[in-house]
Amino acid sequence: MSAETSWLIAGTVPVPDFPLQDGAWRVDAQDPATLFSQGTAVPVFRGTAALLAAACLCCEVLGAPPPGAVLAGDTGRGRGSRAVYAHLTKTMQERAERGITFHYLMPDVRWHNRLLDAVRRRPVRPTLVADAGFMYAAKMSGFAAEYDLFTPDAGEMAFLADERAPHPFYTRGFLLHEDQRVPELIHAAYEGKNAAKHLLVKGETDFVVEQGAIAAEITTPMVPFLEPIGGTGDTVAGIASALLASGVPMVRACILAARVNRVMGALASPTPATQIADLLRHLPEAARLVLQERDASAALVR
Amino acid sequence: MRIRDAVHAFLGGRASEKRAKTEEPKAGGPEKDGAGSDCGRAFLVFEHTGEVMRAEQLLKRAGLSVAVKGPPPELRTGCDMVVEFPLVEELAAMKALSAGKVRPLSVVPVRGALLEPVSLFQIRDYGEWLMARAANMKITAEKKSGRIVNVSGGGCPDVPYLAASLVGKHLWGPDAAPEPRETGHTLCGYALQLAYEEVKRRLS
């Protein structure tokens, strides 16, 4: 781990036997299809690699130090996830990062609770962001409210709203048009104490929520082909992490992240067959454009 | 994910035995909850979700009426499922599983409501491409060729691995992609299998 990094990303990569690595990664802005670290290369296809690549690219634009990452190979059996859980639990008291984004980890409530307990024992509590499998575990644990930000999509919002569902696969009432039901799902999630302090709900409309109240709705630019492209949700979480790492306040960071992701998509003119690395090529330009928007958040906040 | 500990606690220690056992129903038969109708069903518990997917396939091939469900709260660890089947057909079920070299940790009579998986699909037509969604997983294929162009959604760690094995391959033909159930291990992997079957059914 490095004291130079102010933010940590924890997740897995779909590479069998990839050993646990705790350190800094870099990505080439001209060719963001691969992440590099000390002679190791990981393809940026989707998942934590996409989140980390987006965070690295955004940090570069912001002039912030790149995030560190704890990664291990996991193809679904959970071995790599358990290695990440165990390593973070063991090293948490020595870590210096002021924020952590937890991502593609096998949802495992027992390991989640051990790790959260280690986080609680830190003298200064880090900002906690959860997405993907770790968010599922955080919700199921009953400690969702201890997190600062969840970044669900509209379907996962229905999962957070269903107090009984242990995984999106079992969400009751997971029917149609969740996008149109997001406000009521947000209300239900907070009623059931199954939401973080803030939510960035990704969908046709992106909702930024603070303590149960909708703080902003982002609808432009509308890029209809983003939904089928694997990794576009991961990049939003990565961009938000980079903005938080550079000191942007939470609500503004979420608004800007949603905007940057949409502008990145619009610049790429994607089809449903476009891959995430093709979008990431446009992230630096998208970030610069959005950050230049005068009073971007003020214009969007309700 | 490992659920052995939870099973052990739930069954009072019997789950740690190497061979699967059926818990004896209480005198008077299985309890009925308010909803009733669970009498005569049982569920099979496995160590990994990947085994659940293989067991479901084996049991269906053997002609058993099975359904994948969410386990009761005592057994949940976060990403797991069980196979519900008619208790009276336990012998046939165990034979089919044994032939397929899949061994359950335990067989438990159903005593309460199990969680129902999401059963509806959402379809989005993008002109040249069709996207099918099951639960939190989406798969998109080119209509004309059946080529899988993207996989999105999900949060379990086999999703990126499965996506890498699917994208660029076809739903049918000599370059057919492996079915997600062959290499998937999680609920997201199972949901992707359902979405895969749906998009294939619609485009075949």
Structural overview:
- The complex is a heterodimer of chains A (302) and B (204).
- With 302 residues, chain A is of the alpha/beta class.
- Chain A has a single domain, classed as Ribokinase (UDP-N-acetylmuramoyl-L-alanine:D-glutamate ligase, 3-Layer(aba) Sandwich).
- In chain A, 41% of the residues lie in helices and 19% in strands.
- Chain A has eleven helices and twelve strands.
- In chain A, α1 crosses α10.
- The longest helix of chain A has 19 residues.
- The N and C termini of chain A lie far apart (40 Å).
- Chain B is an alpha+beta fold and 204 residues long.
- Chain B has two domains: 106 residues, Alpha-Beta Plaits; 83 residues.
- In chain B, the strands form two sheets. Chain B has a four-stranded antiparallel β-sheet with strand order 2-3-1-4, covered by helices on one side. In chain B, strands 5-6-7-8 form a four-stranded antiparallel β-sheet.
- About 17% of the residues of chain B have low confidence.
- Chains A and B meet through α3, α4 and α5 of A and β6, β7, β8, α4 and α6 of B.
- Series of H and E elements of chain B: HEHEEHEEEEEHHH
The second-level CATH architecture of chain A is 3-Layer(aba) Sandwich
- Written as H for each helix and E for each strand, in order along the chain, the element string of chain A is EEEEEHEHEHEHEHHEEEHHHHH
CA-CA gap between termini of chain A: 40 Å
- The CATH topology of chain A turns out to be UDP-N-acetylmuramoyl-L-alanine:D-glutamate ligase
Taken as a percent bin, the fraction of beta residues of chain B is 15-25%
Overall tally of domains of chain B: 2
As residue ranges, the low-confidence spans of chain B are 6-39
Indicate the overall shape of chain B: elongated
What's the CATH superfamily of chain A, by name? Ribokinase
**What is Rg of chain A?**
18 Å
Spatial strand arrangement across the major sheet of chain A: 2-6-1-7-8-9-10-11-12
Radius of gyration of chain B: 18 Å
**E-strand count of chain B:** 8
Q: What structural class results from the helix and strand content of chain B?
A: alpha+beta
Largest protein interface?
A: A-B, 62 and 55 residues
Oligomer type? heterodimer
Low-confidence stretches of chain A: 297-302
Main β sheet profile of chain A: 9 strands, mixed
